[in-house]
Amino acid sequence: MDGLNPRADPTALVLSGGGARAAYQVGVLVAIGERAGPDFRFPVLTGVSAGAINAVFLASTQEPFAVAVRSIRRAWLRLSIEHVFRGGFLSLTGSAARWLWMLGTGGTTPGFEVKGLLDTAPLREYLGRVIEPGGITANLAAGRLRARALSTTSYSTGRTVTFIECGPEIETWERAGRRATRTKITVDHVMASSALPLIFPAAAIDGDHYGAGSVRQSTPLAPAIHLGANRLLAISVRYRRTATEAAKHQLQGYPPAAQVMGMLMNAVFLDFLDADIERVERVNEMLALLPPGTPAPGGLRPIKLLVLRPSRDLGKLSADLGEHLPRTLRILLRGLGSDRLTSPDFLSYLLFERPYIDRLLELGYEDTVAKWDEVERFLGAAD
Description:
Elements: E1 11-15, H1 23-36, E2 44-47, H2 50-60, H3 65-77, H4 89-105, H5 121-130, H6 135-142, E3 147-154, E4 160-166, E5 174-175, E6 178-182, H7 187-194, E7 203-205, E8 208-212, H8 222-226, E9 231-235, H9 243-247, H10 257-288, E10 304-308, H11 327-335, H12 345-350, H13 354-370, H14 372-380
Parallel strand pairs: 1-2, 1-9, 2-3, 4-6, 9-10
Antiparallel strand pairs: 3-4, 3-8, 5-6, 7-8
């Protein structure tokens, strides 16, 4: 196979959040890189949370796409929890003690702040080593990249803020509850997009504090569309259950905290993407009903969309791997009831360890190979 030629119309890669589950996205990208040919690239890259990490890594490297995704894969294989947050006994118990002190004293101790349950300083250090400084700017100048965007939540305004790095021909936008701002994307922006409220500390950017973009980003496909993409490849980390699977109870009795927290994680990282996919599909159906030559209302345009999803439940895929967590964190999760669940979703978001990452990379690769005819048609079709 000679590979796919770069398309004249912009194609965007949209990467959802999902903590450790984002390794699945890398498996998908490796399979595309092996088959799409040496000249293939995504000119528009958007992401949020862990998906923002993958997208920034891809946007910042000046290597060909196939080489770049193999580099991302190696970075994930070297990753462990100690590279993401401090999960040892002293760190976790010290953080818990600070929370208890703040609650017990009513937050009246001068100068005393609690910024997050987990210390993500190791992730900042790791990203500083693997993300190429100035790479996005260089790729924009060379024409290898049209635009890069990542979304965050502003704690000052409560709005979703999408930071974009792109050429001057692309305009920023402002909608209800969300806006875009042009900037040079750095590790600070990636840390902000990944900062899950209360669990990870917020990131400071230009005097304001930002947290995970997934929290209020109700339209995760919108940044790619605003950046001019007419074709979107979105990689979700949610397995689509059958009706029978969805109706099956995962536990008996009162739901443990791990179940509730897993559902909250799913709401933050997964629900908005599924809702926005349905919204785009409905708009496409509406536009298709217009008589030929009729202008689309409100500047709408049809968007070609392909969504790739795991063929297996990523929560269930982590169920037997809890022993790979640091001992203190393992005990904490057991106390929250994760061992009572057949699909421990909360565990799957935190399991930044090689056995789970291996499974995700392999599944993403295999799923894409199995659907390659569809992917190839989508990425290479003339229209």
